[in-house]
Specification:
Length: 258
């Protein structure tokens, strides 16, 4: 089982961070978002990743190439310059395989997925974006997908409440309430389980996955929702990033399996 991570966008709404690095490399607790996401999957036994690169993909390549070496012992032959890395022993990345694939600078999300056809092969695969954190039960989502037998599963989540609100009695403010509990609304949380045939619905590089293939699957009754009522946070704004960093600093890491 492989998990595809879309990591090629520009992240313009976090421009203060993404002027120099791609959005999946924005740090929370010293680790880039993309590594947090990989740990979510690895906690459920999925440790092979295909990363669709685009904007500043060299930064992501350098991170994994350099840190893979820095996290383990290695031997350098000073006569030849050859470097031999020793197996990692019980490390965070033990057993992980990461394929870093350039999918173009301006390619849309669907186009990036289509460019990974050879990497996906003929097997069911997971897909997500490089900018949302959640404690989704990946194993349960896979079981749900296999049970319904359709081509696509998305994870439905409650949008996080962003604002507190006022309780009014006429023109009088009677109470301040903090962020209310999520209601009955559901949004696409961006954690998918897909069959390779979904790629046949992608016309080319300009196809946005969310605007072409997903509506087509829904019209055919071939898109199913795995409901996730737990933690989910998309990192779209400075406020989102501030909130998850604040959680981390307080010792709260709700997206990581304990």
């Amino acid at each position: 089982m492989r998990a595809v991570i879309l990591a090629g966008g520009r992240g313009t709404r976090l421009q203060e961070e993404t002027d120099v690095i791609p959005k999946p490399m924005v740090r929370v607790g010293g680790l880039p978002l993309i590594e947090h996401i990989m740990r979510i999957y690895a906690a459920h036994g999925i440790a092979e990743f295909v990363v669709a690169l685009g904007y500043r993909g060299d930064i992501i390549k350098s991170y994994f190439a350099e840190h893979a070496l820095m996290r383990r012992d290695f031997t350098v032959d000073l006569a030849t310059g050859a470097t031999e890395a020793h197996p990692e022993q019980d490390g965070d990345w033990n057993g992980w395989r990461i394929h870093l694939v350039d999918t173009g600078l301006e390619t849309a999300t669907g186009g990036r997925i289509a460019r990974l056809r050879d990497w996906v092969g003929d097997e069911t695969f997971c897909l997500t974006y490089g900018d949302s954190l959640a404690n989704v039960d990946i194993a349960a989502a896979l079981a749900f997908h296999r049970a319904h037998g359709g081509r696509a599963t998305l994870t439905a989540v409650h949008p996080p409440p962003r604002w507190g609100h006022l309780v009014l009695d006429g023109d009088h403010v009677t109470e301040f309430r903090e962020k209310p509990s999520p209601g009955n609304e559901w949004i696409n949380g961006g954690y998918y389980v897909l069959e390779p045939s979904v790629l046949d619905l992608i016309e080319g590089d300009a196809t946005a996955f969310e605007q072409g293939p997903l509506p087509a699957l829904a019209e055919r009754g071939d898109l199913h929702a795995f409901r996730h009522a737990g933690y989910w946070r998309g990192i779209d704004t400075r406020r989102d990033l501030f909130d998850v960093r604040e959680q981390w600093d307080a010792g709260e890491r709700p997206w990581l399996r304990r």
